[in-house]
Amino acid sequence: MQTGFIGLGAMGAHMARNLKRAGFLAGVTNRTAQKAQALALEIDTIAYANPAELAAKVDAIILCVSADADVLSVIDAIMPAARPGLLVIDCSTVSADTARRAEAQLRPLGAAFLDCPVSGGVEGARDAALAIMCGGSAEAFARAKPILDAIGRAVTHMGPTGFGQSTKATNQIMCAGIIQAVAEAMAFAQAEQLPLDKVIETLGKGAGSSWYFVNRAPFMAKDHFPAGFRVRLHDKDLKICRQMAARHGVTLSVIETTLAHYAQLIEGGFGDDDISTIFRLKTALFDPKS
Prior knowledge:
With 290 residues, this protein is α/β, with parallel strands linked by helices. The chain has 13 helices and 8 strands.
């Protein structure tokens, strides 16, 4: 299936490159046209002026944008080119309600929609090793599976529309708890004057290890936090999780604590750092003057 890609940020650009390597990519577009033009030149594809022009030329289109309003804006832009058989795959992280709204817009035109948020960070996008959780019809998923296999290592149909985003919300809550625990543990290890490189090497093979520990504890050890998953984006995701939990009449402490910490970090100018920058707040617990 000839596939287009919309949204060429830190993860989207890597995903588009992997689609090109697999022979699926037929073109790209992006809100900032220069990004699309530069990537098109790099990988020898076509940069289209807008989503409708791209959608008119392909069988499937993947979008990976930042927020709910962005997804709905792209869906609106695709609508003039939507037609029976067009497959729209959304790899953004947004609310389940937004996924259902997008699907409802496309369905009368005969176009299929899948919510397929991803997890694995920039590294997973680069290495085509993403975990992809999908919501939508089984037929649409079967059509999308070869495309998604080109960008992910674990591709799972979770159920009807919205179930992909609900699964991703579950993941984001887990990430909040894990990054909190890793940052506290690393701050403790540093306060104990342990050799942090050896801590990471040894405990990375222990029962308490996780992807975040192995891949983000080195950032903490170096006190350097290049954007892999920005604080601002996880903050946005956790606010979606908060809203979803509230519908059950529940407040989840890991969400509230992490959002409070992110508010401090954003106010301090660290909103575009990787979320492992929460380590800054944990080290301050051991040295309040720092």
